Amino acid sequence: MDSPAAVTFAGLPEPLEKNARALMPLASAPCNSARFRIEKLFRDSDAKLADALEALGYYKFESTKALSFDDPACWSASFDVQLGEPVRLRKVDVLISGDADDDAWISQQSWISKPVVGEVLDHGEYEKFKKIMLSAVRSRGYFEAELKKSTVTVAESLDFADIDLEVESGPRYRFGSIEYSDNILRPGLLANYATFKPGDPYDASAISKLHESLSGSGYFGAVSIQADPAKDGSHEVPVIVNLSPGLRKVYTFGLGFATDIGVQGRLGYTNRRLNDKGHQFDSRLYLSSVDSQLSGTYRWPRGNPEDEWVDVFGGYQQKTTDTSNTDKVTLGIRVSRNRSPHWLETPYINFTGENYEVGDQVDKSRLITPGIVWESTVGREISRIRSGHRISLDIRGSLDEIGSDTSFLQVTGSTKWAIPLGQSNRLLTRADLGFTAKKDFEELPASVRYFAGGDNSVRGYGFETLGPTNDEGAVVGGSYLATFSVEFDHLIGKKWSIAAFMDTGNAFDDFDVDFKTSVGLGLRWYSPLGPIRLDVAHPLDDPSRDYRLHITLGPDL
Question: What pLDDT is recorded for position 387?
Answer without folding.
Answer: 92
